[in-house]
Design brief:
This protein is an all-alpha fold. It has one domain. The protein has five helices and no strands. Helix 1 runs parallel beside helix 4. 10% of the residues are buried. About 4% of the residues have low confidence.
Length: 203
């Protein structure tokens, strides 16, 4: 065999081996990066779900408190009950506004307190995720869990939105009720409160 062709063949073989090794490394890096991506998404989804669950719990507590206040108001005479209902409606609306302010506040004492609470919850959520050991899960397992988490996040967003909308409607109805006479407003406020606490979407 011509020595020149033998040299070319040897160089071709070396290049082929190098190309194969490089391809394997790139494929390995791509798999690693891909798993890192789904793991990061997993962490973000868990964090968002935890935040939404806490918000939903607060909103439910607001409605539950309204229901308790309404039941207790039944033991008062109509005039005092009228004032009680005005107070409980205003408190319910105020709680919603404070909750929204806490979500958007990033300065002052209120913002600092909320930031501390959020940090504490994030630490707790992080511990739960460590116990969950997603790092030991395969890429496919994490991706499947992410799909489930996305569904949970979507559902929780909807449930929070429903309660906020119901309380916002209570706010609008309360403002409108100011144009009624005392007796009419008494009846209207009773109906307004019942619509909130008995709404099947809040249960």
């Amino acid at each position: 065999m011509n020595p020149r062709f033998a040299g070319v063949g040897k160089r071709t073989k070396i290049f082929s081996q190098w190309l194969t090794a490089t391809t394997r490394v790139q494929a390995s890096n791509e798999r690693s990066n891909s798993k890192d991506d789904v793991r990061k998404e997993n962490e973000l989804l868990w964090t968002e779900l935890d935040s939404l669950q806490r918000e939903h719990k607060k909103l439910k507590q607001v409605v539950e408190q309204l229901a308790r206040d309404y039941e207790e108001s039944k033991y008062f005479d109509p005039l005092r009950r009228y004032e009680k209902m005005k107070g409980m409606i205003k408190r319910t609306i105020l709680h919603l506004r404070l909750n929204q302010d806490d979500k958007g506040s990033s300065c002052g004492i209120s913002g600092l307190i909320q930031s501390c609470r959020d940090y504490a919850h994030q630490v707790e959520a992080g511990k739960r995720r460590e116990q969950h050991q997603s790092a030991n899960m395969s890429k496919q397992e994490i991706a499947q869990e992410n799909e489930s988490l996305r569904t949970q996040v979507k559902d929780m967003r909807r449930e929070c939105s429903v309660i906020r909308d119901i309380i916002n409607q209570l706010d609008q109805n309360y403002e409108s009720s100011k144009h009624f006479s005392l007796i009419q407003r008494y009846r209207v406020m009773k109906l307004m409160i019942k619509n909130v606490i008995h709404d099947r979407l809040v249960q």
